[in-house]
Design a protein that fits this description.
176 residues, mainly alpha
Length: 176
């Protein structure tokens, strides 16, 4: 193969042959991927344990005790989260019931007095907020959070705790 200046393109000590290069590419084009990790020998005197049966009785008892402790902790966490969930659900139910009943005349009068007092003491802040809202004219972009937001969060935590407990129990069964 010749270059634009007239010289021959060389590959090592032989001239470059594009057909030969293409044939080599077709032979070796399968992707091989990288090799995962290298097996280096462990330092002398250490032994890699891959099975529970390789452990001595003392190590096995220690692992069993650790696994039992993890299961106990996971169960305690799960029961605590369940208690919190029940309390949060009761609180949400009560607040929902309170929200449904209409306010009494005394409550309306009290809230009106408080609103008037607030407006008088925060005139400048309210004016700047009104001006900013008028400048935007996009409306409110905030979503109203559900009353049971904490209940949903607790449910997610309970699901995570159940998964943690299942893993701990599986490890404990494997050691038994």
């Amino acid at each position: 193969m010749r270059l634009p200046d007239g010289t021959v393109l060389m590959h090592a000590s032989a001239p470059y042959d594009p057909q030969k290069a293409h044939a080599y590419y077709l032979r070796t084009r399968k992707l091989k991927g990288r090799k995962k990790g290298t097996s280096q020998p462990l330092p002398s005197g250490t032994k890699k344990h891959t099975q529970i049966s390789d452990l001595n009785p003392k190590q096995k008892k220690e692992l069993q005790a650790y696994a039992a402790q993890k299961v106990h902790e996971a169960r305690a966490k799960l029961s605590e989260l369940n208690k919190k969930l029940k309390e949060a659900m009761a609180k949400a139910k009560k607040s929902e019931a309170d929200a449904k009943k209409p306010p009494s005349a005394a409550d309306k009068a009290k809230s009106a007095r408080e609103a008037k007092k607030y407006r008088q003491s925060h005139k400048t802040e309210l004016k700047t907020k009104a001006n900013q809202a008028a400048a935007k004219k996009g409306g409110s972009t905030t979503k109203d959070a559900p009353a049971s937001d904490s209940v949903e969060g607790l449910k997610k935590q309970i699901d995570a705790a159940k998964k943690e407990l299942a893993v701990a129990e599986a490890k404990q069964r494997a050691l038994a």
